[in-house]
Amino acid sequence: MGSLYRSELMTFCELYLPSEAAYNCIAELGEFGLCQFKDLNEEVTSYSRKFHKELSMCDEMERIVENIKSCLNEDHIKFRDVNGNIPVPEQKEFSGMHTKLTLIQNELTQVNGSMDSLKKNYLELNECKHVLSKVTGLLDSNIKAVATKSISEAEHGHAGPVYTSDEVVAEDFTTFKDRDESELSFICGAINSTKIITFEKLIWRMTRGKAYVRSQPIDDDTNTLFPNDTNKSAFIVFFIGKQLKYKIRRVCDAFHCHIIDSPENPNLRRIALGKLETQISDLIVVINKTSEYKNRILFGTSQHISQWEIEVMKVKSVYNILNYLNVDVTHKCLIGELWTPTKEIENVKSYLRIGQKKAECSVQPILSPIHTHDIPPTYNNLNKFTRGFQNIVDAYGIANYREINPAPWTIISFPFIFAIMFGDSGHGIIMLLSALALVLFEKKIDAAKIKDEIFNTFYGGRYVILLMGCFSIYTGLIYNDFYSKSINIFGSSWKNPYNHTIIMSRLLDDTESLTLPIKEAYDRDNGPYPFGVDPIWNLASNKLTFLNAMKMKMSILIGISQMAFGVFLSLVNYFHRKSILDVLFMFIPQLLFLSCIFVYLCIQVILKWLFFSVTPGFVFGQYYPSSNCAPSLLIGLINMFMLKHGEEGFVSGNVPTGKVYDQCYLQQWYPGQGTTETILLLIAVISIPVMLLFKPLIQLYMHKRGMPVSGGHGHDEEFNFGDVMVYQAIHTIEYALGCISHTASYLRLWALSLAHAQLSEVLWTMVLHIALSMSGYAGSVAVYFIFWAFSILSIAILVLMEGLSAFLHALRLHWVEFQSKFYLGTGILFEPFSFVAIQKAKEGLD
């Protein structure tokens, strides 16, 4: 908790490493993970640094590992999971590791090249086989006669259709006999099926119908080796003349057709088909052997690829840090500078000694704290529970070094503020169970290494969501709101004093409204409902009026309380910085300004709740006749600024028989109210120039006297009164206006709570109530289906959408309204050299 309250004390150290032990020492510090190295070679290009060659080899090894992983993924071979910590390879193993990975890559490249060549040969032979088979079937029919007639008709100006059906229709071929079948030539081959129609149209138009094209798709069920590469069609083009042959060949080349030489003799075609079958069979054997060899390589690689990836990552990280270091003139020592938590210095030294022993070096590394003017980084020691809340704070800004961290209070205030707006026990239970599942199965989820960004966002904030669910159940019990319905746990403090006769008579009489009389209906013996809102309010017609008034005032109380707490936290920061000027002329006037207006308003709200009811009596010495005279706090606050004050008391003579004043709710309701409010307003007004002027003027006086200006940390030689005055004016105006706007901003607690309650009630009334009001078998079926619709809409709208809205509003209230009172958030995040952090970032799990 101490580290979470304030960041850890940090020490800036200078590190001297013997050259032969530098690699091992840096590797051990990477395992330790709490040293942030300073780059002492920022002005040196990466190509000019000492270990550029080693880093280039690491980049090449990373590329090789990625290539191997892509090969494994293509063949659907799973990697072997890495168990435990993988040590950093020794420096002498580095070149051997590079050689091993290069050999594996070369071997895979050679095998893949052979497989590509074999695949190409197999597909070509397979196409040849199917094309020859299709061509043989066509030529064995009377296709030549059909082609001869079609070409003859085209030559006589009677061109037929672009392409015909596969059925050969028996026709009279006696009309055009000027061409003989022996004059026909043909070209056959394979083409992509998606291009076949365009191909046929182009051939027909180019030759003006003097070529005849037939095609059939290649349905190859026997191709089990490469089934995704068989979307081809076999074609044959008949024509007459060498000139057409040249043109048709050019079209085939343009469409990337695979032209196949087919013998015209049927016997030769059958012999060619037999040879193709033999070649394909032999090629399949070779392909299977090559594939088995490739799989053996990949399977053996898959057992170590994850380990190699981690080892390469660690080696590269070590050399990257070594490039941050300077080399002394003797080239026997490397000099570095680093930040580390003060309490961890001895642990750092012990890890350096471990690195020295591993390197078998006789010279010990030297770690010595040194003074620096650099701003120390901010480091908070976090665990899996506090990390989610710290991320909420860090998203606004990193805390300044040793500044108060808002996270300890955010752990409670954030889910509580969220729950005030969410405020439904039923929806809170859904949220609680969802977060509880993520918490209970976190080991399995961590092992799965899910990389989905949206899921990881929810998973990273599982403990935040868990507390949000718990507090939502709590506030839902206070509001007595469970899926828009109230639960009568302790028994209502109200009862119905009417019988059936009175109710009916009142309903028939329009002149008198039906209300519960206080004396008869309220159970004064047992007192109010023990916890939360009385369930009777769920049935009242003025339910919204009552709940809105309660939630509005509650929002103001909570908001001003949180802002006042933030102002008190600023006092702790001032004491830590030993800045007495800030205590006297920032904290005190800020507290007085806030208290004289807004804390005074809160006191009025509480007093009104406690003492003003529907029962007449004396309150603060003034006779109070009825609830109509309950003081109006809003108008009273406006009158306070306008210096308008009414008479004291609610009735003339301050006696029960006195006349009730007109607008009695604007009268002074306690003795000396006008004087008190005038004094409070005067103090608030005076606080503004005190905040604005006193601190800059005193700093100017101190600067002229040569005294330290900034909290005793030394004389500021660059003190500029104009800049200080502008800075102070901005902060004074921001605080004075912010107190007003931020108080109004907290009304969103009431507004979102109202919106959530109304949406929940609408969903119940318009969806589930319809099913529950149905009877019979139809009602039971309707309840089943409508309940699912109600559940889906509740989760999608009221839990997810409304939950996200309340979450964002809670963020705003913490970042602006609360943290602006004490938190600067302009610090530098501590980013240590850590193998764990680097690996998580690489895997996308950070």
Automatic annotation (TrEMBL):
The chain crosses the membrane at residues 416-441, 462-479, 554-576, 583-607, 679-698, 785-811. Coiled coil: none annotated. GO terms for molecular function: ATPase binding; proton-transporting ATPase activity, rotational mechanism. One of its GO terms (cellular component) is plasma membrane. GO terms for biological process: vacuolar acidification. Essential component of the vacuolar proton pump (V-ATPase), a multimeric enzyme that catalyzes the translocation of protons across the membranes. Required for assembly and activity of the V-ATPase. Keywords: Hydrogen ion transport, Ion transport, Membrane, Transmembrane, Transmembrane helix, Transport. This is V-type proton ATPase subunit a. It is found in: Membrane. It is a multi-pass membrane protein. Pfam families: V_ATPase_I.
